[in-house]
Amino acid sequence: MRSAARILVCATTLEAAAPVRRALEAVPRHFEFHPLNDGQPDNPDTHHLIVLEGSGQAEDARRMCMQLRGQLAQTFVPILLISDDVSPRARLANLEAGADCYLLRPFEEAELLGQVEAFLRLKERHDHFAEKAAEINRINKRLKSAYQQIDQELDLARRIQQSFLPQSLPQLTQVRFAVHYQPCGRVGGDFYDIFRLDEKHLGFYVADAMGHGVPASLLTIVVKKGVKTKEIFGNQYRLVQPDEVMEKLNRDMIDQKLSENPFITMVYVLFDHDKREFRFSRSGHPYPLYLPREGPPQLWQIEGSLLGVFETKYPMRTHALNPGDKVILYTDGMDAAGFETYPVGSASLVAAAERYRHLPIDALVERLAHELFSQTKKSDDLTVLGVEVL
Question: Which of 19, 118, 297, 372 has a 20 to 30 A CA-CA distance from 33?
Fold first, then answer.
């Protein structure tokens, strides 16, 4: 049931407003009266309907109508103007003054009642939609605030993840490194590291956590903390072999018993740059691409299960490299790579690498990242790490 409507009746006198009030007895209402020629009424926007009884005072009624329209610029309150001036010019003037409708005397009380009921329904519907719009606006403001908070947190996560990556690549006379790293979002699941282990050895890896975004980026912390490359005994140490690094990291992930059962793919390399010996193990990661100085490119295929799924062993392979040889490590973002008419994925990678193999490693890595995705949209994180024996 509709609550009592607040109806403001403006007429020359209270007696002049009485016929209007009698005609609207059937409408649940709360009437207020304001003299037609006594300035503007206070708070007209608190009413559901304004009735201007302008019989005999048409100019005063139109003048007040115009004043009310100025007061109600931001609020919808219907205005019904009653007039006894039936001339076409007067009827037009009523509408131009801002009246939503007018009634010409004489009229049936039922006609006035019908007009009022129609305006009250219109006002009720308008206020309902206005409240819904205000609620949507409030929700949008809360969402905007939440998105700003998320954006700040993502930016912090990006800076933290960037701080985990090498700030510079090792500078050696025997070997040169280059890297292209591009998460598909603010943060990603790809991760890499390169570090000197002693005067002769380097360790490096490329890893890819399941998915991308914040959950995947958190898994990169597991890799960073879990890769154990050296065991120290007093004044002595032992370099941990790639298969052992993988097995220990795999056990650590399983022992954490993460509810989502996330997994990580990875290639870990122990490189003796004096002997030019490349020793590596792999866990479900794309195969390393070998670019010999002479001869066709090769994908070094080796078994190795995903990290964090079940207890297993990780085979290890050793390759001797020659001056001018290059090795490319990359993540599965390369699966979307396309080059000329070659099939998407590893076939395109091998073809592009063979085309540009003569370039120095830094130029080669950037060329591969550009050429392979110039006509293909990247939908995953991408990391390309290149090694060249000098």
Answer: 118
Q: Is 170 helix (H, G, I), strand (E, B) or coil?
A: coil
CATH of the domain at 23: 3.40.50.2300
Per-residue model confidence as pLDDT tens digits over 109-151: 899 999 999 999 999 999 999 999 999 999 999 999 998 988 8
Q: Specify the DSSP element, H or E, that contains 282.
A: strand 277-283
- Whole-angstrom distance, CA of residue 81 vs CA of residue 197: 92
170 prior amide bond cis, ω within 30? no
Would you tell me how many other CB atoms lie within 10 Å of the CB of residue 137?
10
Q: Quick one: which of 81, 127, 131, 129 has its CA closest to 107? A: 81
How many structural domains comprise the chain?
Answer: 2
Same domain, 26 and 114: yes
Same-domain check for residues 122 and 232 = no
Torsion of CA 65, 71, 73, 77, to 10 degrees: -60
* Position 262, amino acid: P
Whether the full predicted model's pTM is greater than 0.85, yes or no, is no
Quote the tokens at residue 220.
């990169």
In whole angstroms, how far apart are CA 239 and each of 110, 270, 276, 360?
100, 9, 16, 30
Which residue, 215, 159, 169, is CA-closest to 193?
169
Residue 286, domain member (yes or no): yes
CB within 8 Å of 221: residues ≥ 6 apart: 164
pLDDT tens-digit readout, 327-382:
999 999 898 889 999 999 999 999 999 999 999 999 999 999 989 887 666 667 89
CB-neighbour burial class of residue 81 (10 A; exposed 0-12, middle 13-18, buried 19+): buried
3-state secondary structure string across 179-229: EEEECCCCCCCEEEEEEECCCCEEEEEEEEECCCCHHHHHHHHHHHHHCCC
